[in-house]
Structures are given as structure tokens and as C-alpha cells.
Amino acid sequence: MSIQAGSKITVLLAIVLLMSLILTASAACPGTKLVVLPSAVTIDNMGAGALTPGMAVVMSVRVNFPNKENTTYPETSQLELTSGLDNPYWTWNIVRNGVKKDETEERKTRVIINGDVLSWPANTTESLDIHLYGTAPAVMEPKRLSVLRILDVAGTSCNDPVYQYSAWVLNTTIPRERIGALTAELARLRADADAKNRTGTSNSRVNEKIGEAQQALDEANTTPVFEFVSAGLALDRTEAAIADGRRLLEDVPVSSTMLPHQNVTAMQKELPDTPRQTPASPVPVAVPVFAVLGAGLLVLRIHGKGKL
Known about the structure:
Blueprint: H1 2-27, E1 41-44, E2 50-51, E3 56-64, E4 78-82, E5 86-96, E6 99-100, E7 104-106, E8 110-114, H2 115-118, E9 126-135, E10 143-153, E11 161-169, H3 173-197, H4 204-222, H5 228-251, H6 261-270, H7 289-307
Parallel strand pairs: 2-11
Antiparallel strand pairs: 1-3, 3-9, 4-8, 4-10, 5-6, 5-7, 5-9, 10-11
């Protein structure tokens, strides 16, 4: 009985799944008949694949329309062009049967081209040449930017673009500031380790961490700015090595060996309000008067005996 119930549940689940697939397919966006070939796209200054704030971007895209339909494009549809660049400047031309029409200019983030402008009778070779100029915006952290997006708006809620080009925009000032801060922190750690070395304390493990931090910092300095992930990982390793070195240095006991006398003197000179001992002035020796008189009488007595 339980086996039959289980089989019925399985069949019911299969029916529900099939119905959901049918509903999903019917609700899917109707496929656009517009085509953008990879060979019809040109992008200037994008050899590295990423942008930095203020970098100029120039793009050209050709959209091909079908020539086997009743019209090249439905009159009730719209073609939407959008860009995330700063100060976008568009120019576009309709080309029919090899003849280029007048150029249209737009200076806005979102451009709408109505279907009645693009629609033409069948058996016509039609394309749309689009040129975009702009600059990459400022960002606080790496951001994926939609540089150019072409959407075939057919009166539905579809958001599948005919063509879209996106690129990373990198903030190059943040890595440089972090590199500078870690460089200063590593220098302080190295100076503190050297100070303990002069007392005769062994801190070889601290020196190992200093070497690891320096190696990772050098890697971050030499990593191209567009490889921001690799540079960030190298800086993370630098920060971790410095933190480990600082912790190890604090755990190193201070040696009981005394500092050389000249170093102590130098330290006393550098420290304010250090009491200084001045050399003692010579004190005159007091000789009693009776001692002087006694010595004189003794000399006279000896001198008188000599005459006798």
C-alpha cells in the first residue's frame, strides 16, 4: 500500500514539475531577432580589460536587423541604449541597403529609438551603427560597470539585452594608500626589532616575519593595477606577516645584558630632566696652627745642636 502511495506521489510531482516548466517557457522573454556580431564591435583603450576613473572609452557597435520578416523592426517596439559612463555621448546612423542615413546625436545616459524610425518593409538590408564616447566614473571600490547595453523593448518586461558590454572600474588610490601605510608599519617593526637585537636578544622568528612581509609588499608593488585581486591578496599577506611579527616581538624577553656605558650616557643625554653629576671642586686642606709651630721649634732645636 505504501509503495502504491509513493508511486502516486512521484507521478504527481512529475506532473507539477512539467506544468512549472511549461509556465516558465511561456513566461520567458521572446527571443529578439536583432543580431550583434563580435566582428561588428570595436572598443578602444580596453586592451587591459579594466577601467580606471577618468579613462576615456570609445565604442562602436553594429546591430543587424532581419530582412526576411514582414518589416525590419516592429513599429510598436523600441530600442533602448544605456551606459554607465560619465558624460555619455552617442551618435547613431541607420544604414539601409548600404546607404547611410543622417546621423543623430544624443547626450544622455538612456537613449530611446522608436520602432517607427527603425521599421522598413521586408527584403531590406538594414543595420544600426552606434558610437559611444564617455569616461569611466569615480568609484570607492572595484565596481562592475555596464558600459553599453542595448535592449529590444517589445512591450514586455523582458530584460535580456541584444548586446551588453561590462568592465571593471578600479580605484587605484586605495591600493597605493594601503601600500604606503603598510610600508611605514613594516619600517617601525624593523626598527623595534633592531633595538631589541642591540640588547643581545635573539628574535630570529621576528626577522622571518619581516622578510615575509617585505616579499609580499614587493609583490603588491609590482602587480599591475588591473590585477587588483592579486594585489589585494599580497597586501593581506603583508598585513598578516606584520601582525605576526609584532606579536612575536612583544613575546621576546628583554636580555639581562647591560647596555655599553657609552650608550647609557647617550641615552641620559637624550632623556629630558635626567639628573647630571658635576665633578667635585677641590676642597682646601686645613692645617692646624699648633702643628706648624711645633714643626718650627723642632727645626730650630736641631739647628742649635749642630752649632755646639
